[in-house]
Amino acid sequence: MPRRDGYTQGEPCWADLSAEDTEGAKAFYGGLFGWTWEDRSMPDSDMTYSMARKDGCNVAGLGPITPDLLAMGLRSVWNTYLAVDSADEAFRKAIEAGGRGLAEPFDVMTTGRMAYIMDNQGAAVGFWQAGDHRGAQLIKEPGTMSWSELYVPDVGAATGFLGAVLGLTAETADMGPMSYTLLKAGDEIVAGVMEPPENVPPSWSVYFGAADINETAGSVTELGGQVMNGPFPTPLGQMIVAADPAGGVFLVHDYSTAADC
Q1: Average pLDDT for 118-134
Q2: How many CB atoms neighbour CB 1 within 10 A?
Q3: Is the pLDDT of residue 259 over 60?
Q4: 22 and 45 belong to one structural domain
Q5: What are the residues whose beta carbons fall under 8 Å from the beta carbon of 22, sequence distance 6 or more?
Q6: Which pLDDT score, from 0 to 100, does residue 60 have?
Q7: Residue 261 has pLDDT above 60, yes or no
Q8: Which is more confident, 150 or 68?
C-alpha cells in the first residue's frame, strides 16, 4: 500500500471538501468510498472539521462551505493543497509571480500552517506547511486520492508560475491528439496540467482511485450523485467525471484498466 508520512514541496498532499450539508456529504462519500469519519472541533469556533478515514489512515477532509462560495451559488467544492516548505515564502512568491492572495498564511493549531491563493490563471489552490498533519496518509488505492490536475487556458504561463513559486518543472507527455503537461518535483511526477474542458473554469481537480469503475459509477447514481461523463478510457485508466448530490465535481479512475487506452 502507498502509505505516506510527508510530501515534497509542490506535491498535492491533501484534498478537502467544503460543503453546505456536511452530514449529507458524509453519507454520500462514506457510501461511495467506504470512508469513516472523525470529527474534530476547532478551538474558539463552533466549526467542526471532519477527517475521512480509510484502513486506519486520514485520506481527505470535510468542512463547512464559506459564505463567499455560497454567494457564488456553490454548495459543494473540492479543494487541493500543495505541500510547501514555508507557507509564508510560498505565499510571498505567489504574489510576486502574479497570483492573488485569498487567505494569508495562518497557523492551524499544531497541525500545520496554510495559505490560499489564486494563481496567475485564476485557479485557486492551498499551500500546506506540515506540522502534526503531514497530508494524506494513504494514496493511489481505491477510495483515496490518486491524481491531481490543473485546468488553465495558458498552460505555459501556469507552469511558469508554479516553477517560480514552488520549483516545479514541466514536461510534455505524449497522449495522442490531446496536449498534456506533467508537473515534476525533482524527478517525481506529481500532477498534470491541461487546457480546461468546455465550460470548466481555471481550477484544480481531484481524482480518487476505484477498484471497479462501472461499479463505482453505479454507486454514484444510487447514492444520489450524477455521472457527468464516462466511463471512458484514458492513459490513467477507465474514468468517470462525477458530481455529489450538492454538485461537487470529482473524478474517479481505475489504474488497473490503464492498458485499455
Answers
A1: 96
A2: 10
A3: no
A4: yes
A5: 48, 50, 62, 63, 64
A6: 98
A7: no
A8: 150
Q: What residue numbers bound the domain in which 169 lies?
A: 145-260
Number of domains making up the chain? 2
Mean pLDDT of the chain: 93
Is there a single domain that holds both residue 194 and residue 160?
A: yes
Residue 58 shares a structural domain with residue 105? yes
DSSP letter, residue 216? H
State whether 68 and 173 are in the same domain. Answer: no
Position 140 in a domain: no
The grid coordinates of residue 44 equal 474558539
* Rounded to 5°, angle at Cα 146 from 141 and 151: 165
* pTM for this entry: 0.95
* Co-location of 150 and 236 in the same domain: yes
Instruction: Answer whether residue 260 shows pLDDT above 50.
Output: no
| C-beta separation of 84 from 166 below 8 A | yes
d(CA 183, CA 119): 15
Q: Which residues contact 169 (CB under 8 A, 6 or more apart)?
A: 163, 183, 184
What type of residue sits at position 160? G
Query: Is residue 48 located within the same domain as residue 154?
Result: no
The CATH number of the domain holding residue 76 is 3.10.180.10
Write out pLDDT tens, residues 149-199: 999 999 999 999 999 999 999 999 877 667 899 999 999 999 999 999 888
Say how many CA atoms lie within 13 Å of 15 toward its Cβ.
Answer: 23
In sequence order, what E strands does 109-220 have?
Answer: 112-118, 124-130, 145-151, 169-175, 178-185, 188-194, 203-209
Displacement of CA 49 from its chain's centroid (Å): 17
Alpha helices, H only, the chain: 22-33, 67-71, 87-96, 155-166, 213-222
Residue 18 lies in a domain: yes
The fraction of the chain above a pLDDT of 90, given in percent, is 84
